[in-house]
């Protein structure tokens, strides 16, 4: 049952980061292990998407329902696929230096083999994923325009 919680100060506006995370259809362009993303339906407050994740010999597709609680929260609820459960929450809090992003993910695969395989690389994988979002923000919005203070450097 891998669980990961992380808080990062990122030198972009909360609305920019919210939009980046909410743009699920573009995940395969920049997220490690995301091989395919199909948004099946979308409204201003919710989307349903199929994501295909692949690592090593494993390739699995799952469906999730994503609540877009603009301006500060995105919640992902698992609907069907290889998991017993999946919970994922992004929270975006304005800060004079940018945006304080809280990221939480908790899941369990139905397959013990898959669970053991991901367990060995999970923490590094989540760090890579969060870093991929930061890199994507820079590619999408350009260099950060909000300067960090010396005591609390922003992610770049």
Automatic annotation (TrEMBL):
One of its GO terms (molecular function) is ubiquinone binding. Residues 10-133 form the Coenzyme Q-binding protein COQ10 START domain. InterPro entries: COQ10-like (IPR044996), COQ10_START (IPR005031), START-like_dom_sf (IPR023393). It holds the Pfam family Polyketide_cyc. One of its GO terms (biological process) is cellular respiration. It comes from the Bacteria. Belongs to the ribosome association toxin RatA family. This is Coenzyme Q-binding protein COQ10 START domain-containing protein.
